[in-house]
Amino acid sequence: MTFRDLGLSSDLLRAVAEQGYTQPTPIQRQAIPTILLGQDIFASAQTGTGKTAGFTLPLLQRLGNTSPSQGHRTPRALILTPTRELAAQVSDSAKTYGKYLSLRVAVIYGGIGIGQQIHSLRRGVDLLVATPGRLLDHLEQKTVDLSQIEILVLDESDRMLDMGFIHDIRKILAKLPSSRQTLMFSATYSKTIQQLANTLLKSPSLIEVACRNTASEQVEQVVHPVARERKRELLAYMISFHNWKQVLVFTRTKYGANRLAEQLAKDGLKTAAIHGNKTQAARTRALNDFKQGKVRVLVATDVASRGLDIEQLPHVVNFELPNVPEDYVHRIGRTGRAGQPGRAVSLVCKDEYSLLDNIEQLLNQTLVKKVISGYEPISPVELELEQPNRKRSKPRRSNRAKPQIPSEPKPTQKSTSVGRRIQKKLERQN
Ligand code: AMP
């Protein structure tokens, strides 16, 4: 199947070809024709699946098909994203794919001055990409008008809820026309997501593609048990010993990210940190330096790393395991992209074993553990981790989507509630 078969216009096909995309990805094959028909969708897909083009291309086509109102151009499509980086990336993608259309794309997010954003909104916008907090600021200052929105996209809805944006989102929704097309994307599934989907979507088509960790057999996952105080030393050793050129390292806290970045820099490794307390300019600079190879190690918190699009990232290190097991799936989804092999390494100390248990239960998989000689964990509990018959607690029943969703089920068109349909699907898998 080609992009042409999906019903995209020649202007979009040209832009897609220039990106070097020859074939649509599974989510694109399912989402593009459905969105072009004007239907609502609930898509469970993660970063790395090609989801951004999956909703941006048909959205641009729908906007391009109808001419903007004469005079001032108020936004006709709104894409909400959880983080500034993701907003910037989605708007860059929209500009790239829409380069042969005369549509105006603007992006608004916090952490930078509001003046330039007001200016571009005044000039007129067709497609607006925004983070919820800053969009609310604009709504309160009456510098944005959302009364003409025809298409709403909630990208990474689960993450927006995890980040506490639900109240902001509800306030934004209240400003939108009720007759509109709504596209909801979420990597995981929970009761809150179900409730939001039920209130927002009208007879949605359900689209699911395999999550990164199962789809990507490319990602080799390994756990190195190690004492907490020796983690930094082990990491520096591994980077140098294996001569890793580009490695993304996750810490749990902003403070931890800063401290680790400073220590690694002292070890002679070119390192930058990216987290919520950094200015937008510093975050963008760190990311660009990392992409260009000027920085070898990028230390990030989960929030800051969300949606980062770094092609062919070979190594991801969990310096600390995340508290939320789903974050592990998001983290390792940074590597093993586009068919390239990737390696996800977790440095785990004894206080983190319960977190590791939760992750393994979510993955339904026991991860390979390898003690690195010279960095053996010292306590007997840590050594016990190496025993193959370690007693495991009973798998937790989760109402979140397990990362074992079959690869390409057909989108369903029935108008039962999204919750019931997904719930049934999960029950069948269990
Ligand atoms: P996303 O899941 O939207 O974050 O996309 C992940 C990466 O896949 C991005 O770098 C896109 O440029 C790339 N991509 C999207 N669609 C395709 C395609 N059909 N073929 C090859 N690469 C693609």
Lateral arrangement of strands in the main beta sheet: 3-4-2-5-6-1-7
Radius of gyration based on Cα positions = 22 Å
Provide the low-confidence segments as ranges.
212-216, 386-430
CATH C-level class of the largest domain: Alpha Beta
The named CATH superfamily of the largest domain = P-loop containing nucleotide triphosphate hydrolases
Structural class, please?
Answer: alpha/beta
Overall geometry: globular
CATH architecture of the largest domain: 3-Layer(aba) Sandwich
Continuous helix count: 18
* Helix content, binned percent: 40-55%
CATH topology of the largest domain: Rossmann fold
- Arithmetic mean pLDDT: 83
Describe this structure in words.
Strand 12, helix 15 (325-332) and strand 13 (342-348) form a beta-alpha-beta unit. Helix 2 (26-36) packs parallel to helix 3 (51-65), helix 3 (51-65) packs across helix 4 (84-97) and helix 6 (132-140) crosses helix 8 (166-173). The protein has helices spanning 10-18, 26-36, 51-65, 84-97, 115-123, 132-140, 157-162, 166-173, 191-200, 212-215, 231-242, 254-266, 280-291, 302-305, 325-332, 353-363, 380-384, 418-429, and strands spanning 41-44, 77-80, 105-108, 127-130, 151-154, 181-186, 205-208, 219-225, 247-250, 271-274, 297-300, 315-318, 342-348, 368-369. With 430 residues, it is an alpha/beta fold. Residues 212-216 and 386-430 have low confidence and may be disordered. The two termini are 32 Å apart. The strands form 2 sheets. The chain has a 7-stranded parallel sheet, with helices on both faces. A 7-stranded parallel sheet has the order 10-11-9-12-13-8-14, sandwiched between helices. It is built from 18 helices and 14 strands. The chain has 2 domains: 3-208, Rossmann fold (3-Layer(aba) Sandwich); 219-378, P-loop containing nucleotide triphosphate hydrolases (Rossmann fold), CATH 3.40.50.300. The chain binds adenosine monophosphate. Adenosine monophosphate (AMP) binds next to helix 3. The site of adenosine monophosphate has 15 residues, from helix 3.
